[in-house]
Design goal:
The protein is mostly helical. The chain has three helices and no strands. It is elongated.
């Protein structure tokens, strides 16, 4: 455990940021699952609307530094390809 006051403050800040990042990552996973569920059900319009929402959430996560920009692009690309492959 830290004894220096500034180190104690850093521990609090790191924990707060870690909690925020975890919540954002969880939200991204939820929206990705919605897209996957729509693809599995075969509903293309639902999949496209879910993709639009997921893209927005992933982009926001990347802009906040939760995901690297290339990671976010890869996630969006893979979801887009999956939706576009639907008949």
């Amino acid at each position: 455990m830290a004894n220096i006051k500034s180190a104690k403050k850093r521990i609090l800040v790191i924990q707060r940021n870690a909690d925020r990042n975890k919540a954002i990552r969880s939200k991204v996973k939820t929206y990705v699952k919605k897209v996957d569920a729509a693809i599995a059900s075969g509903d293309k319009t639902a999949a496209q609307s879910a993709l639009l929402e997921a893209t927005s959430v992933i982009s926001k996560a990347a802009s906040k530094g939760v995901y690297h920009k290339n990671t976010a692009s890869r996630k969006i690309s893979r979801l887009s390809v999956a939706v576009n492959k639907m008949a």
